[in-house]
Amino acid sequence: MARLFLENLLKSFAGPRHETIGAVRDLNLTVEDGELLALVGPSGCGKTTTLRLVAGLEAPDRGQIFLDGKSWSGVEAKDRDVAMVFQNHALFPHMTVFENMALGLRLRKFPAQEVAARVGETAERLGLTGLLERRPAELSGGEAQRAALGRALARRPQVLLFDEPLSNLDAPLRLQLRGEIARLRRPGRAMLLVTHDQAEALALGDRVAVMKEGAIQQVATPRELYDRPANRFVAAFIGSPPMNFFEGHLVERAGRLCFQARGEEGFADIVESKASGALTRHTGGSIILGLRPEHITLSGEADGPGQAQAVLERVESAGADCLWHFARGSQRFAARAAANDTLRPGASVALHFSPDGARFFDSATGAAIAD
């Protein structure tokens, strides 16, 4: 078993003016045995600090870290069953690939025969067998990162940590290494991957934890994060392009709640929503409607509930589909659909805003409103 539990972690640093900077704030997180959990968020949100706390490279100001119920308080980094893969591969330039991969095992006094067996097995798995006698300068970027991954795997640790391991690679290599990392799941190992790339987090994580300013905003499966974000920040951060937001208010018409966007140029009745207790309490008050780009589609009508006219500003081709960027007054929003060569920038287009994809957020707090 390898179940990693972070309880009420707090970590602060002194700023340049001696002010206190809270890097991690009351963080609670569990990585289950055999799970790959992706920790994602913007630069400076505390992701790497969290990883360093787990590795023992930083000590928390408060809180504890447990592996299988045993506290790591006071346990030095060298005594934790943890291996880490860094953003820059951090291979020793004067050592061969074999020597780099064997270093952790030799420091732990493993017999030479077992060192050779473990390195050989790991190298074969990662396609490094023919590169073991090369030095880092003789490797491509992808080969060097695979060697760094192999160094961590040869240890067979219970906890495997990744600190943005793919960010310095080009797109094809990122896809290749994603596959290598995804295949590392197994019982007896917990994996925590830190990244600022939400696409990478969604592709690799069994669950994804979204972080902002040192605090966890939501932990959920990739599908749940995308479909049911806990707040406006998560809705904006997860998804490319992000969710569209419309400020407005709810009005009651014929026993149903209808959203009306704010401003003279705003959409009337963008979407009709089934009345629920949570939404009803916001009737007449400010509220934010969120719609993913795929929930805005072409319509044959220009009027009626959920319909609106907008001007197409630009088109982004994405192969089989495309992104349409629209404007209506001061409002800008995006729609995703199958590629359509007949639409040209400047065209006035009738659109339908689907109620099925509507998500509502509190204007003051940004928290999602249950529907």
In short:
With 371 residues, the protein is α+β, with helices and mostly antiparallel strands.
What would you say this structure looks like, in words?
With 371 residues, the chain is an alpha+beta fold. It folds into two domains: 4-237, P-loop containing nucleotide triphosphate hydrolases (Rossmann fold, 3-Layer(aba) Sandwich), CATH 3.40.50; 244-369, OB fold (Dihydrolipoamide Acetyltransferase, E2P). It contains nine helices and 21 strands. It has helices spanning 47-55, 97-107, 112-126, 141-154, 171-182, 198-204, 222-227, 232-237, 277-280; strands at residues 4-14, 20-31, 36-40, 62-67, 70-71, 82-85, 159-163, 190-195, 207-212, 215-220, 244-253, 256-261, 272-273, 286-291, 296-298, 307-318, 321-328, 331-338, 348-353, 359-362, 368-369. The strands form four sheets. It has a six-stranded mixed β-sheet with strand order 6-7-8-3-9-10, sandwiched between helices. It has a six-stranded antiparallel β-sheet with strand order 13-12-11-14-20-21. The protein has a five-stranded antiparallel β-sheet with strand order 15-19-16-17-18, with no helix packed on it. Helix 5 links the parallel strand 7 and strand 8 (190-195). Helix 2 runs parallel beside helix 4 and helix 3 crosses helix 4. The longest helix has 15 residues, at 112-126. The protein is globular and about 80 Å long. The two termini are 39 Å apart.
